[in-house]
Task: inverse folding
């Protein structure tokens, strides 16, 4: 039995039978007095994954008060540094963030950058006040708007689509499609930041863990690694798209087909790794890890093919960078598979 607010030292107390079918156990007097509890006060009893009990006085069964923060900036401050600070405050659970000018007015550039960063990257965030020397951001979402699994599913769908579109853009050098891939990256970043905010909140509030779709607090690390991997997949899809934009002439169809086939395998591995994670399927994750050696050999052969082509140096360089990003996407699939292996190995019989 774990007593909320109690010291970490253990106390052993006997279970007593009262009446014919009821069992009772006393709680430490010091704990009761410390929390100001009285007879007939209610206590929430929660059964944890390890079968221990968590006791929480009803008056404490509530969310922490909304956090507020203020940032004071000067005209010469690096705006990207300010944006990173806003992101950090968002992820630690702040609900209201005020950005004030230390001297004079906020510049038009500062205001535009702050509003654009919030709109592009912070789910549930709105500008609620704006004046010459202050702008206030309010995070309107509550927990849990989305479960961790919901977020992971959406991130996978977007990152996978970005990867496919980036490779497709290479076929006929579809510059418009390549640019659309770059624009989609903000959506993945939004979900990644929201995941950090959600997981940190769950780790600080044991009542929130199951509400966000976790079985226990220890699952949070695995899901964080998985969302980070998907965010990196999206980043490499963007790199592929940027290299497509840098190529001036279409590549031979036969070469494109080889690149397409390799990336199709990579995308399928990514999908399989996510499915194994959702299903908690150790054997599927193990099979996926075994396939990676063959995929690595395939990448080495593809690099030799690219280098053997009679193409200009710029195109060869861009194709080499595209292949490098494609290989990294495969590696992130392996990272997600390892999360599943680590989560499920103890369940094997």
Result:
């Amino acid at each position: 039995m774990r007593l909320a607010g109690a010291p970490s030292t253990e106390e052993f107390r006997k279970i007593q039978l009262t009446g014919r079918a009821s069992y009772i156990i006393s709680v430490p007097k010091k704990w009761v007095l410390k929390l100001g509890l009285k007879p007939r006060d209610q206590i929430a009893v929660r059964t944890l994954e390890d079968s221990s009990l968590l006791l929480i006085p009803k008056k404490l069964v509530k969310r922490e008060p909304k956090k507020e923060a203020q940032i004071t900036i000067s005209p010469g401050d690096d705006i990207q540094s300010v944006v990173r600070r806003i992101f950090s405050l968002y992820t630690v659970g702040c609900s209201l963030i005020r950005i004030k000018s230390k001297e004079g007015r906020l510049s038009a550039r500062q205001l535009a950058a702050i509003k654009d960063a919030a709109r592009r990257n912070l789910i549930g965030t709105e500008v609620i006040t704006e004046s010459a020397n202050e702008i206030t951001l309010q995070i309107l979402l509550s927990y849990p708007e989305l479960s961790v699994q919901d977020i992971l599913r959406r991130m996978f769908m977007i990152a996978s689509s970005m990867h496919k579109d980036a490779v497709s853009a290479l076929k006929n050098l579809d510059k418009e499609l390549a640019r659309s891939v770059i624009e989609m990256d903000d959506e993945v970043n939004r979900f990644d930041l929201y995941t950090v905010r959600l997981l940190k909140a769950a780790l600080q509030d044991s009542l929130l863990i199951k509400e966000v779709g976790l079985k226990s607090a220890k699952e949070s690390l695995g899901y964080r690694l998985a969302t980070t991997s998907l965010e990196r997949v999206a980043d490499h899809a963007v790199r592929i798209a940027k290299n497509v934009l840098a190529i001036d002439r279409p590549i031979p169809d036969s070469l494109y087909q080889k690149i397409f086939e390799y990336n199709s395998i990579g995308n399928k591995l990514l999908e399989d790794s996510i499915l194994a994670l959702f299903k908690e399927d150790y054997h599927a994750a193990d099979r996926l890890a075994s396939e990676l050696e063959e995929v690595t050999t395939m990448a080495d052969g593809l690099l030799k093919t690219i280098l053997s082509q009679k193409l200009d140096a710029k195109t060869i360089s861009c194709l080499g960078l595209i292949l490098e990003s494609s290989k990294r996407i495969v590696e992130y699939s392996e990272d997600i598979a390892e999360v599943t292996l680590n989560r499920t190995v103890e369940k094997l019989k």
Summary: Residues 299 and 324 are 9 Å apart (CA to CA). The longest helix spans residues 313-344.
